[in-house]
Write a structure and sequence with these properties.
Elements (H helix, E strand, L loop, with lengths): L1 H32 L23 E8 L5 E8 L12 E6 L10 E4 L6 E8 L2 E4 L2 E10 L3 E9 L5 E10 L8
Parallel strand pairs: 1-9
Antiparallel strand pairs: 1-2, 2-3, 3-5, 4-7, 5-6, 7-8, 8-9
């Protein structure tokens, strides 16, 4: 009888521990999905630092990281385009993770190691790298869309802060 009670208490302790760990993970995932004020970790108010019509179209495509691992590239443009990379003005955010690793995660610059690369481009061949910033992903449906917010700063003091819902542009790539 004593052994049976001890065994039940042990199982109850394990179940409670797993539940507490799951709750902590859920809280951390919610926090990671919150866009933060740069350098503070404090959630930022939902606002845009660019006019509503700028960078109003977004699409994402699979890509390869510099070491040939999986990556996702997000493009923000002023109008619809299917070209990757776009030939017109755009913001490019490359995250060196697979699409399944993006939901509810925030990636920041500068960081060590770098999570990817971000730049603002006036054309396909003329780009300015981000000096500080982040991209916070919310929902990601690898077959349809991904949503989130970018908050990027550049050397000249310009800032691009914009919520996005990007459609997926399928593309065959061979990494590795």
């Amino acid at each position: 009888m004593q052994a049976r009670l001890t065994n039940r208490l042990h199982r109850l302790f394990i179940v409670a521990s797993v539940a507490a760990a799951a709750a902590a993970c859920a809280r951390e995932a919610d926090h990671a999905a919150q866009p933060a004020r740069l350098g503070t970790g404090v959630p930022a108010p939902p606002a845009s630092s660019v006019p509503a019509n700028e960078y109003s179209y977004a699409f994402a495509t699979p890509d390869c990281a510099p070491w040939d691992g999986p990556a996702v590239v997000l493009y923000l443009l002023d109008s619809k385009s299917d070209a990757a990379p776009p030939v017109t003005r755009h913001v490019r955010v490359a995250i060196w993770k697979s699409a399944t690793e993006l939901p509810r995660h925030t990636f920041r610059w500068p960081a060590s190691p770098q999570p990817g690369a971000a730049a603002r481009c006036s054309s396909a061949d003329s780009c300015e790298d981000v000096t500080e910033g982040q991209v916070a992903f919310g929902a990601v449906d690898p077959d349809r869309s991904l949503a989130g917010e970018v908050d990027l700063r550049f050397a000249n003091g310009d800032r691009v802060r914009k919520a996005f819902k990007a459609s997926w542009q399928p593309r065959r790539i061979g990494c590795g």
